[in-house]
Amino acid sequence: LAQESSSRLAALPPPHLRAARADLRSAMQGAGARGVAPVVKRPRIDHIDGCCFALVLPIVLAHSARFGMTNKTLLKVLAQENVLVGGFFVLMGYITAYTATKVGERSADERKLARPEMFFWSRVMSYYPLHLLVSTVFAPMFVAIDRYYKTPAGKTGLRAFLNYSMLQAWFPAEAEVWNQPSWFLSALTTSNLAMPAVLTRTAALSKVGLQKLFFGLTAVSMLQKVSFSNTSRFHSHNISTTEKEYPLIWNLTR
């Protein structure tokens, strides 16, 4: 009723709008007096879209710069996009917490977390069907590349299994073989698995507790940023060294 009334109010001219809002406010107060709980609607946070753009743009520029830039100093600066990937985890976690906790209360929404398995699958199914489609469409290309480099069939099968099961992020040597960005979805799946338990405890923290948790997580994140600071040599032929290097520690840290 509140949503329908709001849509109708938006179409009214200003003088009638003020009067209608007053009538609606009185009606809702009357409903509260009769024991009917008013509907608390979460406001949409438009700034989230702006944050996504601010994170995506440097990543796109970094991938493009590798193929058209010879200035090594500038290339090292631009090739730090992996540092920004952590921002997506922050946004995903914030959105999940925002939609699964109660507005104005220090508690989680029991209705959404009552069945953790359904909460987990609802999150995973928001991206896995597209991952399944893309992986299947391009699977012949991935297999052909493995055959070109004479990769054993057993290892190709392992890579396919890790890709489809979303476990590749936990195997550093294979984390970016099939569809490199999908390692992010693999790590996100694990995060979604732990989210019901994490949200229940985090939602009950006070402001001081949340600040302490924030500073602790920031300190851990800084260790990863130091590890990411040397990523350019793994991805750019203009910076790569003559020695053969394997970014196992880098992938494991990530």
Characterise this structure.
It is a single chain. The chain is mostly helical and 254 residues long. It has 13 helices and no strands. It has helices at residues 2-10, 14-33, 47-65, 72-78, 81-100, 110-113, 116-124, 128-148, 153-165, 182-202, 207-228, 232-235, 248-253. α5 crosses α10 (182-202). The longest helix is centred in the last third of the chain and has 22 residues, at 207-228. The radius of gyration is 24 Å and the shape is globular. The two termini are 47 Å apart. The mean pLDDT is 77.
Q: For this entry, what is the oligomeric state of its chains? A: single chain
Order of helices and strands: HHHHHHHHHHHHH
Largest sheet: none
Distance between the termini: 47 Å
Secondary structure tally, helices:
13
Share in helix: 55-70%
- pLDDT averaged residue by residue: 77
Keywords for this structure?
254 residues, mainly alpha, 0% strand, 13 helices, single chain
Condensed summary:
The protein is mostly helical and 254 residues long. The chain has 13 helices and no strands.
Give the topology, please:
Layout: H1 2-10, H2 14-33, H3 47-65, H4 72-78, H5 81-100, H6 110-113, H7 116-124, H8 128-148, H9 153-165, H10 182-202, H11 207-228, H12 232-235, H13 248-253
